[in-house]
From TrEMBL:
Coiled coil: 65-94
Catalyses which reaction(s): tRNA(Phe) + L-phenylalanine + ATP = L-phenylalanyl-tRNA(Phe) + AMP + diphosphate + H(+)
Cofactor(s) the protein requires to work: Mg(2+)
Family: Belongs to the class-II aminoacyl-tRNA synthetase family. Phe-tRNA synthetase alpha subunit type 1 subfamily.
Entry-linked InterPro entries: aa-tRNA-synth_II, aa-tRNA-synth_II/BPL/LPL, Phe-tRNA-synth_IIc_asu, Phe-tRNA_ligase_II_N, Phe_tRNA_ligase_alpha1_bac, Phenylalanyl-tRNA_Synthase, tRNA-bd_arm
Species: Virgibacillus sediminis
UniProt keyword Transport present: no
Record's keyword annotation contains Nucleotide-binding: yes
Its EC number(s): 6.1.1.20
Gene name in the database record: pheS
Cofactor note (record): Binds 2 magnesium ions per tetramer.
Residue ranges of every copy of the Aminoacyl-transfer RNA synthetases class-II family profile domain listed in the record: 106-340
Record's protein name: Phenylalanine--tRNA ligase alpha subunit
Amino acid sequence: MKEQLESIQAEALDKIAEADERKQLQDIKVAYLGKKGSLTSVLRGMGKLSKEERPVVGEIANRVRETITAALDEKDEKLEKEEMEEQLEAEAIDISLPGRPVPDGGAHLLTSIVEEIEDLFIGMGFEVREGPEVETDYFNFEALNLPKNHPARDMQDTFYITNELLMRTHTSPVQARTMKANEQNKPVKMICPGKVYRRDTDDATHSHQFTQIEGLYVDTDVRMSDLKGILDKFAKKMFGADREIRLRPSFFPFTEPSVEMDISCKVCNGEGCSVCKQTGWIEILGGGMVHPNVLEMAGYDPEKYSGFAFGMGPERIAMLKYGINDIRQFYLNDKRFLKQYHKA
């Protein structure tokens, strides 16, 4: 039996040395050390041995098992290492190759325009304020000198939710809210950008949802000349230092007197072309001196305080500045269009 055990050991070690796959090692382990393996079969015959032979053979059998097990573990570790090296070599990354560029996003054109306007007015001492898009009839109309059944309400075809709730038609309610909340009648100098909503048919120049930025300055001794100076600086910043402005009389219920502002056409430099309809001027925004009724409803004494207000549409400004002829382009999310105005 001793010779059998030594023969099994030698045979197993030879097969282990020849194995070149880890699966082969598992098969060898089962063939020699498993329940039906060669070593196990030999050990089952130990019952026929004398009491003196059993300890000797048992010791040899244990040594054979330990030797085969150690050889299997050593070879398995070696093959695992070789497999890992092969895998690393096969999956090697050439770090000298240039990486794949990841396209970066950017602000939407309207967002960029709004931020540019905000930066300009913040630099002139204005604050940026916000307000609700679902507004009350009072703040959207009545607090702005548009009482019930006022004919000027027809100028702003409104999305009503209830008789007293609506989607705001302009951002002027933020001005009314800000003044009314200012119980100490401190000076107010603010702009309020945001979305507004009107029941309009979408086409190249109209949208049922669009953006507005309105400005307000209320203090003692605020004059129309202050408004003109602010708007002149705005026009030159947005459209170029050579832009000229003109103010034309107009009507808005919440300002008196009211004006509309034109800028000189940058295409023809005021000489007249198809863009400006041969006038040399392009309308850009409206404004005026805050109506005394609006001041009074907000808690300001119109005999002591005065102010100016103005409103503009960032879509229109962007269209004029970049030569865009369809307002719907801003809302289609067409990357081909948006990429043209992406600022790195």
